[in-house]
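Team,

Forwarding the record for the chain on the shared tracking sheet. I've put the sequence and predicted structure together so nobody has to dig through attachments.
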Amino acid sequence: MVINQNFEGENFRIVRPNEVQNRLGVSRAKFADMVAKGQFPKPFTIIPGGRAVGWLGEDVDAWIIQRAQEVV
């Protein structure tokens, strides 16, 4: 996955696990397995020391596009 390093003037959206699962069309268990096996990138903690995690929306989009291109 490519992470956008240019943060100036950008509006980023954090995508939580449930939304990513829904977008991928997989169960909670399958999604957790994908992350554990490195098939999907690990999330970041939203608040340092907290439990809430997420991904940048554009990174999720990039992963989906990359997968689609690999399958074709």
